[in-house]
């Protein structure tokens, strides 16, 4: 086997393991291998790592694939532990829980079916209703309010724009005829969605991920979606698919701890350490969707939420239980987080999610 | 490629050591490949591991010019590429007019226009500077802070190693600058930009290397103090803090201790100078609680 064959074979292995080793990257690796001269395995390691990897997450995969390929082992694709449960998780009750809308029988005579559906708890829908709610969810367009940036745009009124004024002067032989003016450009704030996908949130996870998909579709570069459970996973990329079902399947493949336990404080800390502190959460509208069930110490969750609230422009907590009559935020974790929240909303039904869109856009 | 390109990663590491930067094998290989393949180098890593210092050392070691572009939100072409010096252009125009009035001849409008858009009225911002001064190491620092619009025209400049100024024409680099981009991952940089680069994740140095770095950068401190500081910083890094200290912080700490005349690290001195390493109250408290085990001898 010659070197080129060996290296492209390795690239194939790596692609199989989940690193996005595109053909142009493989070209770069071959060039690097050529320059370094593959006299020892170490050289091949660096030639590949510097050209094929593009983010820290690639590095452990690369190391494992390298060891497997050049160590003579059979490469294996990392096991995907969970696939999106597209229906099974949602408890089906034909006409089960009203959510404080027990009198719907009378209202139903005048209200359209959509209106009734809007108010229903998404965990209690029939398969047909769920499809309808999903269709309506895809129509939501959560977007944050704008803030002024440092960039300027030409405007009719405002401060004088020296470069444009002078450029016009030069065009007219040095005569100052009119003052050009400018204003600061507006740009929407970043929206960060943190979705709890642990077992206790399972009935709402599908709707919330679809909400996330709608948000990412609205502003692909200004929205970030992470899932929290026993660990933290970034699903923004997966959710960029145009089709909601394809996006959810991709997200499900990316989430290793789907419907597992909750270690909210730990996974929130992981988010803050790897993304939040560095800038993702800075000045952003952060929406945390969770029931606040924390197996660990509530004080630890309180500390992380406090940290998050200091970074974020606005912190919104979405708790599906809030929409239920008689709910009070007394669960340990929820109580600890409450003092640091700017908004505390329900998000258990389509209407509640529409209200969330409102809250986000007001921020 | 600059005239004095090193012949191997080891040669580059030696050259970098000559200017006081100790690079490990991965970083030296990355730098070597960037020089040989003419590709930009995309560096990521914790804050303070020496990404920026690496670019500067690369320039010093190869005798190239060093141009740094610090990115920030709203950075635009006028601040990163070039800008016309409008006040001087107006002044020039007025002078020509006044001269024409005095002598009585009509100025030639074409010549006048050409003289207005002369190279001397062009203000070179970092990217243009990097193209005009060859050989050059261009550091695009914290690219993730700039917005996507900026990435797009950076991409254009990097892939062409030239820019076209409508009034003046194309300005191309004699040797393409060696470009080092750093990012703190506050947002995902566009794939189109990353694809053109070599990617390297810079790690914290090993204990031995950190002692070496401290001794090289701060010749005035004792061997013992360097080892103490490196060991303590290493243990602080394992403490699960909000902001883990990098090499920049251990250097700060060592020079703070040296300024106090310390020969070794003891608990009182460590507590008094902890502010040089840790910048969060929570981190300082956590470390102080475990101070004895942090600074215990090996």
Main attributes of the structure:
heterodimer, A: 363 residues, alpha/beta, 3 domains, six-stranded mixed beta sheet, three-stranded antiparallel beta sheet, 14 helices, B: 298 residues, Rossmann fold, five-stranded parallel beta sheet, elongated
Explain the overall architecture.
The complex is a heterodimer of chains A (363) and B (298). Chain A has 363 residues and is of the alpha/beta class. Chain A folds into three domains: 3-70; 148-187, no CATH class; 191-362, 3-Layer(aba) Sandwich (Rossmann fold). Chain A is built from 14 helices and nine strands. Chain A has helices spanning 3-17, 23-36, 41-52, 58-70, 104-107, 113-119, 127-137, 162-171, 202-218, 244-254, 264-280, 298-311, 332-337, 350-362; strands at 146-155, 159-160, 181-188, 191-196, 223-228, 232-234, 285-289, 314-318, 343-345. A six-stranded mixed β-sheet of chain A has the order 6-5-4-7-8-9. In chain A, strands 1-3-2 form a three-stranded antiparallel β-sheet. In chain A, α1 crosses α4 (58-70) and α11 (264-280) runs parallel beside α12. The longest helix of chain A has 17 residues, at 202-218. By secondary structure, chain B is an alpha/beta fold. Chain B has three domains: 9-76 and 125-202, P-loop containing nucleotide triphosphate hydrolases (Rossmann fold), CATH 3.40.50; 82-121, no CATH class; 207-287. Chain B has helices at 9-18, 25-37, 51-62, 77-80, 86-103, 109-116, 126-132, 148-160, 191-195, 207-217, 223-237, 247-259, 267-273, 281-289, 291-295, and strands at residues 41-45, 65-70, 82-84, 122-124, 136-141, 162-165, 169-172, 178-183, 198-202. Chain A binds chain B through residues 22, 24-25, 28, 31-32, 35-36, 42, 46-47, 49-51, 53-56, 59, 149-151, 162-163, 166-167, 169-170, 173-174, 221, 236, 272-275, 277-280, 282, 307, and chain B through 9, 25-26, 29-30, 32-33, 36-37, 39, 44, 72-74, 76, 78, 83-84, 86-87, 89-90, 93-94, 97, 116, 144-145, 147-148, 184-188, 191, 194-195, 198-201, 242-243.
